[in-house]
Amino acid sequence: MSQCWAQTYIVYLGSHAYGPDASTEEHARATESHHELLGSVLGSKQIAKDAMLYSYTKSINGFAAYLEEEVATQIAKHPDVVTVMESKMMKLHTTRSWDFMDMERDGQILPDSIWKHAKFGEDVIIASLDTGVWPESNSFTDDDIVSDVPKRWRGSCPDTAKYGVPCNKKLIGAKYFNKDVLAHDPSAVTGNWTRDTEGHGTHTLSTAGGRFVPSANLFGYANGTAKGGAPRARLATYKVCWSGVCAGADILAGFDSAIHDGADVISVSFGPDQPFNDMDQFLQEASALGSLHAAIRGIAVVCSGGNAGPLEDTVVNSAPWVTTVAASTVDRDFPNVLTLGNSAHMKLVAAFAIKFDDMDHQSQGVSLETTTLHASKLYPLIKASDAGLPGTNPIVASTCPLDTLDPAKVKGKIVVCIRGGDIDRLAKGKAVLNAGGAAMIHANAEMDGDELEADVHVLPATMITYKESLSLFEYMSSTTKPVANISPSKTEMGVKNSPSVATFSSRGPSSTLPYVLKPDIAAPGVDILAAFTEYISPSEIDGDDRRSEYAIMSGTSMAAPHVAGVMALVRGARPDWSPAAMRSAIMTTARTKDNMGQPMRDQHGGGEANAFAIGAGNIHPNRAIDPGLVYDLAPEDYLAFLCALGYSTRDVERMSASKFSCPAKSPPMEDLNYPSIVVPSLRHSATVTRRLKNVGPPGTYRATWRAPFGIEMAVVPATLEFKTAGEVKEFKVTFKSDKDKLGRGYVFGRLIWSDGTHHVRSPVVVNALD
Question: In this protein, which residues make up the domain named Peptidase S8/S53 (predicted)?
Fold first, then answer.
């Protein structure tokens, strides 16, 4: 007999036939039908009610229940069920940025800024699925909002807890969903409220749509006016993540509510640990399913791409109906200086090949420390691998886990901790502090390369590059008494060769859907200042009593709400555009060069960033409202795409609650009318089809292209004449492989349509197999 155990399953039945204005009686009947279906398998409706966590009754038709595997298998055979999936756990993808993207200059809004064209996102509604909100933040006050909440809004702030979240004219919705995470780990839930006890949700929500707040800073760093992308947008938060974990059934409940309540844009900054490697499992994930329902209803969904870079095939949230975001840097750093030894101690640093006969060697690192060392004193240096408690493996000790360092060896010294080891960066500093260390040097390993992240440490600290780390260890090996000092940090603006793609940002190709390029776009995601909870310290370290209304954080989690904010602005300026048209406008107007006029670099290795790292490029908001042409998609295109994935007409009809028939021959997945072009398996030759829609004045557009290396590329026709707004023209792109240049893997090119004023750019990616 097979062993059975209970866990949460989502039973998906498709869409509800009724619209968003359905009555409470219709919602109740839907729940009753769910009880009857589950009860027919479990033996009674009462048992079904006890097992059920959620009944999805608004846009999504289905339910989540705590079931044994055999029961879930039996339900999956029911003729009304589209699919049954396990509820999987997902993790969070953890100011100056808007200036850097040319929406303002030196604090002044530019005349052609998208902010002015879009009226700062006035009355567009942004929903965030995250860890909730800290409502007392000045980013969410409604002091400058005169108009009432839009009448189309159906949401509310139903918290009744003592520390609940009240609504105002800015923050117009706040709900929490935690039944699934409670079933897995009750200790993860701090309270039945939407209040943010982690800071992540407050940070992302204020980045997307927080109001202008002057004199915002983190302990004096990055001082200036904090700004959300769409500062006059209305905001709603759906707390589906608890203690860093987001449960699938809770996520789907959040999507169902946000869609029904009337959101225009949904921002999502979490995802699975790794992508699915099987297209058959594509819709076995709550975010993919929830975002499909949003897209069918005309709601733009923006998702973080993940923080598993620089490895390839790590990008998540790869559905073609969402906009997937990579993380890039801005031109602001928080440097400090690491001074090593003097003429009595340092003789040679090999990586720099410089002799230090009469001077100290100085390396630049980054940090956001709030305490400093004595400037005139040099402190003894010790490697964490040499400072472990008796019996501790030196390799383990080298990454500074808590309670592994020997106070007798560490007291009063600067400890060198190696990055990695699945140990939180700030927790390493706490380990050094607990052991009596004076300061910490966080040394990058080879995989980390030049990626530096400023952290709000609990002691004087700095992070240094891999190259600098090699120099440091060379110096420490050259003397029996290595010494050093770490200067206080400062805020430095105008950093050159920015933006670059962050090393941690997840990369394509997408093994889940290799026919669609992901990520779509890059946006600022490194050292971003935004609102934060005052429930915990920005360091999130136990025992750290510091509090700040604003914090600096990094991750694709921070990049996604930048794009969500721009999406809200585009919606405000172009309310008749579809989510696909908005995404196309953002992608085809993106920048691919840095502030030195050079191709965007990859922090990992320093070379040119390819489309698997940055998608179409770095977002350039001001251009997005006037792209000239767009690659548009309707819900029917996504439904046909599902047919190509193997879903039947019956399944697709139920997903969309509409009359739809899969075509007799499904179109190739490469022909989905996406702004980027991917041919994942070119054998000799291939042709892809695209359609362009005119959203500007009449004009003639001509194609130019750079073929991927070893590939012959042709565009037919190479000239498109548009006489009216809304006119659609089709073209084909043919690829042929050069047999003498095969075996190089993926190669990259581009296609540009231009009328002399507009430049509609698309990345092109080809993998020639034979």
Answer: 121-601
Name the one residue in this structure whose structure tokens are 């993860």: 188
What is the full DSSP assignment across 214-244? EEEEETTEEEEEE--SSTTSEEEEEE-EETT
Per DSSP, helices labelled H in 513-605 are: 556-573, 579-588
- Superfamily name and number for 91-331+498-623: Peptidase S8/S53 domain (3.40.50.200)
Per-residue pLDDT of 497-511, as tens digits, reads: 889 999 999 999 988
Which one from 99, 123, 130, 632 is the annotated catalytic residue?
130
Q: Tell me which of 557, 578, 676, 737 is the catalytic residue.
A: 557
Q: How far is CA 156 from the centre of its chain?
A: 26
| Distance (Å, whole) CA 347 – CA 333 | 30
Tens-place pLDDT, residues 316-371 = 999 999 999 999 998 888 888 898 885 333 332 323 322 333 335 566 666 666 67
b vs e for 21-47, b when ≥16 Cβ sit within 10 Å of the residue's Cβ? ebeeeebeebbebbbebbbebbeebee
Contact 502, 328 (CB under 8 A): yes
Pick the CATH number of 335-488 from 3.50.30.30, 3.40.605.10, 3.30.1490.20, 3.40.50.10350: 3.50.30.30
Q: By C-alpha distance, which of 695, 761, 689, 688 is closest to 728? A: 695
pLDDT at 106: 58
The one catalytic residue among 93, 200, 345, 361: 200
**130 a catalytic residue:** yes
Q: How many CB atoms lie within 10 A of CB 434?
A: 16
Domain ranges of the chain: 6-86, 91-331+498-623, 335-488, 629-633+672-768
- Kindly give the interhelix angle for 286-296 and 649-656, rounded to the nearest 10 degrees: 70
Q: How many CB atoms lie within 10 A of CB 4?
A: 10
| Residue 126 three-state SS | strand
Kind of pairing between the strands at 500-501 and 601-602 = parallel
Q: Is 148 a catalytic residue?
A: no
Between residues 104 and 563, which one has the greater pLDDT? 563
- Tokens of residue 485, six digits: 């000092």
User: Of the segments 86-100, 475-489, 668-682, which one has the largest average pLDDT value?
Assistant: 668-682
* Alpha helices (H) along 272-398: 286-296, 394-397
Please report, as a single letter, which amino acid is at residue 660. Answer: F
Dihedral of the alpha carbons of 254, 255, 259, 265, in degrees to the nearest 10: 100
Q: How far apart are the first and last CA of the chain?
A: 49
Residue 603: CA count within 13 A, CB half-sphere: 30
> Is 754 strand, coil or helix?
strand
Enclosing H/E stretch for 25 = helix 24-42
Task: Say if strands 711-716 and 719-722 run parallel, antiparallel, or are unpaired.
Answer: unpaired
- Of 333, 614, 623, the residue nearest 497 (C-alpha): 333
278 among known catalytic residues: no
- 220 pLDDT above the threshold of 80: no
Q: What Å distances lie between residue 35 and 32, 60, 183, CA to CA?
A: 5, 16, 19
Contacts of 195 (CB under 8 A, 6+ apart): 132, 133, 134, 135, 159, 161, 163, 164, 165, 533, 535
Residues 6+ apart with CB under 8 A from 401: 421, 423, 427, 428, 431
Model confidence, pTM: 0.89
